[in-house]
Amino acid sequence: MTVHLHRGDLPDGFDFGAAVAVDSEAMGLRLHRDPLTVVQLSAGDGDAHVIQLARPGYEAPNLKRLLTDPAVLKIFHFGRFDIAMLEVYLGVRTGPVYCTKIASKLARTYTDRHGLKDVTKELLSVDMSKAQQSSDWGQDALTPEQQAYAASDVLNLHRLKDRLDAMLVREGRMGLAQACFDFLPARARLDAAGWEDVDIFAHS
């Protein structure tokens, strides 16, 4: 694993190919209270690119261009949160997207354990550490442990997608999954607009 740390934005001309794994870190889990601080990316090649965002301006044109590129699939785990954060702080509507957590819930109906650590452990036999999840992601210099944690959240998403796709096809749920992925940016926009705690499809 190689971690490339970038300040503010991706370098010019960087190519992630047809699909890029994406994750983010913030100062908490409240969309409009807790600032977005870090975005990490991987092409699935064993390298991770960790971007410390420049606050409060969030001028990251190369990153924004990638997130909105219709030719590049963005792979998330629990993309609902990340996509909403990217919209609130970077002002972009990310797409097209794939979410391994949604895929897991549709394919792995034999379990209720759909966290990234659990899915990665079962499907890839990789044991991830979550020790840095709640650390200070707003500090000027990320620790080596934080960098390694950020990288670990994106390094396996391409392989997870492949395994989950095979399961979805086997169970006849690939079309349903794709419909969910297509709707996910709209669900994130609802969260960003204040409906994060409301199920608009519920009867009451």
Q: Can you give keywords for this protein?
A:
six-stranded mixed sheet; single chain; about 40% helix; alpha/beta; about 200 residues; Nucleotidyltransferase, domain 5
Brief synopsis:
The chain is α/β, with parallel strands linked by helices and 204 residues long. 41% of the residues lie in helices and 17% in strands.
How would you describe the overall organization of this protein?
By secondary structure, the protein is α/β, with parallel strands linked by helices. It has one domain: Ribonuclease H-like superfamily/Ribonuclease H (Nucleotidyltransferase, domain 5, 2-Layer Sandwich). Helices cover about 40% and strands about 15% of the residues. It has seven helices and six strands, in the order ββββαβαβααααα. The chain has a six-stranded mixed beta sheet, with helices on both faces. Strand 3 and strand 4 form a beta hairpin. Helix 2 packs across helix 7 and helix 3 packs parallel to helix 6. The chain is globular and about 45 Å long.
Helix content: 40-55%
Could you tell me the radius of gyration in angstroms? 16 Å
Number of helix segments? 7
What do we call the CATH homologous superfamily?
A: Ribonuclease H-like superfamily/Ribonuclease H
| Beta-strand content bin | 15-25%
What is the CATH T-level topology? Nucleotidyltransferase, domain 5
Shape: globular
Instruction: Provide the low-confidence segments as ranges.
Output: none
Summing up helix and strand content along with how strands pair, one would put the structural category as alpha/beta
CATH architectural name: 2-Layer Sandwich
Total strands: the figure is 6
Q: Whole-Å distance between the termini?
A: 49 Å
Largest sheet: 6 strands, mixed
Q: How are the strands of the largest sheet arranged?
A: 1-4-3-2-5-6
Mean pLDDT comes to 96
List SSEs in N-to-C order. Answer: EEEEHEHEHHHHH
The total domain count is: 1
Look at the structure and give the CATH class. Answer: Alpha Beta
